[in-house]
Queue: 2 jobs
Job 1
Amino acid sequence: MTQTTTRVILSKRPEGLPSDDNFTIEKAPVPEPAEGEVVVATKYISLDPAMRGWMRDAPSYVPPVGIGEVMRAGGVGEVIASRHPKFSVGDHVNGLLGVQTVACVPGDGLHAVDPSLAPLSAYLGVLGMPGITAYFGLLEVGALAEGDTVLVSGAAGAVGSIVGQIAKIKGARAVGIAGGPDKCRHLVDELGFDAAIDYKNEDVAARIKATCPDRVNVYFDNVGGEILNAALTRLATGARVVICGAISQYNNLEEVKGPSNYMTLLVRRARMEGFIVFDYAERYGEAFRDMGGWLTTGKLRYRETVVEGIEQFTDAFAKLFSGDKLGKLVLKVSD
Amino acid sequence: MTQTTTRVILSKRPEGLPSDDNFTIEKAPVPEPAEGEVVVATKYISLDPAMRGWMRDAPSYVPPVGIGEVMRAGGVGEVIASRHPKFSVGDHVNGLLGVQTVACVPGDGLHAVDPSLAPLSAYLGVLGMPGITAYFGLLEVGALAEGDTVLVSGAAGAVGSIVGQIAKIKGARAVGIAGGPDKCRHLVDELGFDAAIDYKNEDVAARIKATCPDRVNVYFDNVGGEILNAALTRLATGARVVICGAISQYNNLEEVKGPSNYMTLLVRRARMEGFIVFDYAERYGEAFRDMGGWLTTGKLRYRETVVEGIEQFTDAFAKLFSGDKLGKLVLKVSD
């Protein structure tokens, strides 16, 4: 019996915020798996800021998605056919399934996940790329030390919310920057941040000064733009600025705004460093072991925003940029 | 007998390029040295881009020069009176003497120099702050490795010219960015750089691409602005960007231009790091030993531009920004 997949194709590269004009949704038969391939019924699709970069025809750490190709995305699902020795029908897997309801993909790119240990969607968030991005970004690139003050932007998002919590677990202070009073309350009251800054309603520079009296040892940046610039002015000597993303700039139609205060790196003998979490692939096990333990003991909490239906892809994706979501944003494709 | 000093006082903070309006030149009696102080007859005054920062009323790694105070500057001279046990009349010393012909200063801030080993002015350049800035900036902050491609801006200047030569000594490729064909020829023909880029007459981005086919492992930045931005686009994976200065921005009347291409730090897993050479004070000996050896064996060459007369201070200082000089710029005060 031939399976049918509903898939979202990149039909035109976006300028600015992607809209329905940039994608077509089509139905297509799922091919029979070749040797080494696995057919997966998608349950949840991950919506990540990095996907905006993949839509751009520019050199980066991975090739852009081609026009006419299925939009690239991480996902979790259930194996419904397999010609790969590691996977059997009924297994649950995580990998680059693309924005489609059924995926026929090489098994070598998939990882088995256990739905009895955590909800499937958690493998796209706290136990997935956002979680390990927070983990290695803060601990390795940020070289976190006990007693540090950690400032994180996009703090109510999938990565930022974990950065702040790991900081607390490791004996640092955590201050988060997020949009709106609800998110700020969530950071402090539910996630245990020491303070939160509402960039939509407060003077960010003044609030960083007030909430980080000993200056900032690690600034974990997910947003770029004026918030990065403000954070740079309050770096401590020897500070580390972790460049994880720049969501404020991804849909910019003009030139990206560079951090005009970058010379504080000199005055403060500080460094600004970028990273790609894939470079830590051999050490993912460490992160999953620690994060799993913290989840079990309740030290680490997470929230997610679930949008239902693959045809909602464009609207759901836009929530990453409008901020109209909390924690990890996922698209639910099937039960 | 009371000595008289001619001294340059900061009378008004400059906006943009400093001019004679910002300084007054006055004669004053030299005080009798107190216990621990030394009176020095200045021979050469160092003119450095960092001095522009010291004229600004903004927090930095040292306090600003106050209005009405002698302009801060490094210098070398001869001891003419001493109440410090380490220094005797006739000794030659290096330290923050200020822009004045005779300085009465604490002896603890001075270092003895030997005019029989190198010309006195060399202790302000290759054997002074510019030399050790190049040395620790390239080898420590830049973490130079054999086979690296090193790109340096301000390459015909006091620091940049040494950066490129140390790169060559250590088995790396050196490419310099400088203003005008004469400086570029000097870099390649006299200092042994592999290639030079004339930012005044060439397309910098295109020339970086052409001269650094394996991309850039270390970019040593003295200038900031558009050249920094161009260099960022050609970083190699794991590259180090050493922030030493931003001379293109120091006299800016508008907001500093931040590097809009900073997100290449993420794509290339690269870091951008600032430093202050004073932090390496305990290791200066290493640098002076290596640099002295390279000078003796002719592996390291230097040039200087000498302006005569303390009353020429403002005009001479302006040459740092106009580029109308080669190598280390010094003001000669007396024979």
Job 2
Amino acid sequence: MAAPVRSVLPVVLLGCGGVGRHLLRHILSCRPLHANQGVAIRVLGVADSSSLLVADDLHSNGFDDALLADLCAAKSAGSPLSSLLSRGQCQLFNNPEARRKVIDTASVLGKTTGLVLVDCSATYDTVGMLKDAVDRGCCVVLANKKPLTCAYEDFEKLVSNFRRMRFESTVGAGLPVIASVTRIIASGDPVSRIVGSLSGTLGYVMSELEDGKRFSEVVKTAKSLGYTEPDPRDDLSGMDVARKALILARLLGQRISMENINVESLYPSEFGPDAMSTKDFLESGLVQLDKSIEERVKAASLKGNVLRYVCKIESTGCQVGLEELPKNSALGRLRGSDNVVEIYSRCYESAPLVIQGAGAGNDTTAAGVLADILDLQDLFHKTA
Amino acid sequence: MAAPVRSVLPVVLLGCGGVGRHLLRHILSCRPLHANQGVAIRVLGVADSSSLLVADDLHSNGFDDALLADLCAAKSAGSPLSSLLSRGQCQLFNNPEARRKVIDTASVLGKTTGLVLVDCSATYDTVGMLKDAVDRGCCVVLANKKPLTCAYEDFEKLVSNFRRMRFESTVGAGLPVIASVTRIIASGDPVSRIVGSLSGTLGYVMSELEDGKRFSEVVKTAKSLGYTEPDPRDDLSGMDVARKALILARLLGQRISMENINVESLYPSEFGPDAMSTKDFLESGLVQLDKSIEERVKAASLKGNVLRYVCKIESTGCQVGLEELPKNSALGRLRGSDNVVEIYSRCYESAPLVIQGAGAGNDTTAAGVLADILDLQDLFHKTA
């Protein structure tokens, strides 16, 4: 039994890869649940890296559910968005017109019915669009970390109306890390320190090393299990963790940028992508790293500690890299690919607030994005 | 530098004990932080169990900060609310007029500027007022568990406009348990199971037993540390945990009441408050329980498990009592008085989402209440 619709959330989705498609499927399968709660999500447009499919009538209900299902199927099969044009009810814009059309849509809807611009891409290219949308009074929900890790001015602009902004899935996928930190800060409880293991890949690698396995073998196994990026150096560089650390540090009010973060890479620069192919790194580079990593694991173990790849955000600065930690701390106990975050504040001083769980995966990330969209519903009261 | 005020949150507080006074102090100390975010909390009234102090002009800024500070000091010193009358700007109503005045205030403000009725008492007496306030369009924030554990119809009425309702601090003080479960459900990820250790007192007792200490000694130590209620049977009965379990079960959509929860008490009924004084229980009752508890701890230990006092909410029902759990699970590893909750769903199927931290204390509970109040701000846009 559907409740009267209280809130209508018009959405334009940027990015239609694994997370974006999962989001659309979640929206479809949640229709009855959301109707029950008096909420309706209307998808008015979907963009991939080359074009934008947008509803003919922006004030309508947006794409019908059959078209959205077909869109997911088409993108999964590698077909372009243009393959949906024959269905009617939509228009296609290729870049750069696509970007202009997103801004136009934001302008038309921003001040009237409102619009949520959802970024599930993995590019820096959306920053301009997102900033323009914020200027036009739109809401923004991000799974894409990159817009929040650009210049500080961009971050500041994006969060300038903080209540119209959600980015839970940029750190720990669906884990309620950002929401919890925001709650704690809002209650006047000053967060003094955040320590986290925020890479499922590096979490897996470090706990396998603890069992005495060799670094090169563990990384290759992680790759074969699909835990790493196609080039594992994308994980081993620590840059993905550093982006999450930067987002958390900025959330705590630190006016810093990537260059202020001390990032330890798990391979030396002479083994980097500029100097060595992925194949060479996997076949001959990796094994040369075994000995030094083994020594560090052993040195930690002799002190009763374990080695973890963590981010550490304190008032004195922000660091990303290997740390020796007590075996019986929340981070030290971590096994497998779970993420874990420890938050220290006045209320959580001697023992931190700990949040742990799966911190990656398209399903989990998309679920976090959907929860973020719904969290904006009080800004979208139906006026009609 | 204060931002323009976007949201004004008028508040009437019921209950002025430890949590209520901490809340008022947090509101005062957060003034600059909230001003920065464009939010202003106006306290229009404060009630204790016998009377209500209310601002002369409901459309004003409410009590000034000096009066609120004095009010906290007066209540801490055991003075009645009437001692504030000489300050002016306020009126006093004794029960039952006080209750009627709260409803009148809700009627006046509910549909205009809105009102947040905050219940930091620990009584069933507020249920009627809260339901009337909901009927008048007010928002409700609860630290008081009891209104949510009455008849199912009362619960249903209180959450009938779910977005105007917050009750984070009823389970795990400031820990983001309710908010996380709500997020997960909203994203269409069905929660299948929640297992939690939700009593700091019983958490402490169970982890001390694991170290081979005697039950009677541990309970007496807990009492002397101020971890238990004046009569430790209030903790050992499991009823406080059962209330939290009921709230979580109802949040998952279970239409159940207290009588549907299987609650294991840690003392037999012949040692209950009706049969034995607190003094007798502490001096002679407790030691008679040592042997059976010791046997259960040992039996668990022989299987490599530990004994925990947990609540378990599944689709098949809701139980509260002792459970044998693996030593290396989130619950099994628990030491001291932290609370911990494991949430299982599609996204957190094999490994649960785990939230752990201090789950009691006036400061932490009041911080959770304040975060809840601020979370309602999008419903309170300043219209002027």
